[in-house]
Design goal:
InterPro entries: MethylDNA_cys_MeTrfase_AS, MethylDNA_cys_MeTrfase_DNA-bd, MethylDNA_cys_MeTrfase_DNAb, MethylG_MeTrfase_N, MGMT, MGMT_N_sf, WH-like_DNA-bd_sf
EC number: 2.1.1.63
CATH superfamily of the largest domain: Winged helix-like DNA-binding domain superfamily/Winged helix DNA-binding domain
Oligomer: single chain
CATH topology of the largest domain: Arc Repressor Mutant, subunit A
Number of domains: 2
CATH class of the largest domain: Mainly Alpha
Helix content: 25-40%
Protein name: Methylated-DNA--protein-cysteine methyltransferase
Order of helices and strands: EEEHEHHEHHEH
Cofactor: Zn(2+)
Structural class: alpha/beta
Catalytic activity: a 4-O-methyl-thymidine in DNA + L-cysteinyl-[protein] = a thymidine in DNA + S-methyl-L-cysteinyl-[protein]; a 6-O-methyl-2'-deoxyguanosine in DNA + L-cysteinyl-[protein] = S-methyl-L-cysteinyl-[protein] + a 2'-deoxyguanosine in DNA
């Protein structure tokens, strides 16, 4: 295979919030998908193939995924507070990419930011709803911590992985009390 061809390798890995679908290209981690049941997995892989122009290949022992798998396991074990992964941003663009990059670099572990505050950080103070749309389109949740974005009045806001998953991630980071199981 020539080096200029797009390669997309994927695997499903266990986590503290259920199975995650991870996919990576040579540029870096390209997606993290929640609730990686077969139907969800297949839909995500189909979208990846279409958007990236390459057929995703299952690769449980992928060198491209080794470090993301290691860092996510450490995060869920409470041993990692900051990801240092190569990220492939090709599934986001424009305002969404700008907001997600600010979120990834500017909202540390154990803290939260309001939708409006994040909008102001990227120079669009009136764009709280657009920030919400960017969070909903985040292809790299957990690693790009959209769970740390909350409503200004203290509400959790929305979350693509479900509000219980958001509560679990915030509890892991010490922001909310541990959920009762």
């Amino acid at each position: 295979m020539e080096s200029n061809e797009q390669v997309v390798e994927w695997s499903v890995v266990p986590s503290g919030i259920g199975p995650l679908l991870l996919a990576a290209t040579r540029r870096g981690l390209v997606t993290v998908g929640f609730h990686a049941r077969p139907a969800v997995r297949d839909a995500t892989l189909g979208l990846l193939g279409t958007r990236l122009g390459a057929e995703p290949v299952e690769a449980p022992d992928s060198a491209l995924l080794a470090e993301p798998v290691r860092q996510l396991a450490a995060y869920f074990a409470g041993e990692l507070r900051e990801f240092s992964l190569g990220l492939d941003w090709s599934l986001s663009s424009g305002f969404h990419r700008e907001v997600l990059r600010e979120l990834a670099s500017g909202v540390p572990y154990g803290t939260v930011v309001g939708y409006g505050d994040l909008a102001a950080r990227v120079g669009q103070p009136g764009a709280a709803q657009a920030v919400g749309a960017a969070m909903g389109s985040n292809p790299l949740p957990v690693v790009v911590p959209c769970h740390r974005v909350v409503e200004s009045g203290g509400g959790l806001g929305g979350f693509g992985g479900g509000l219980e998953t958001k509560r679990q991630l915030l509890a892991l980071e010490g922001i909310l009390p541990q959920p009762l199981f």
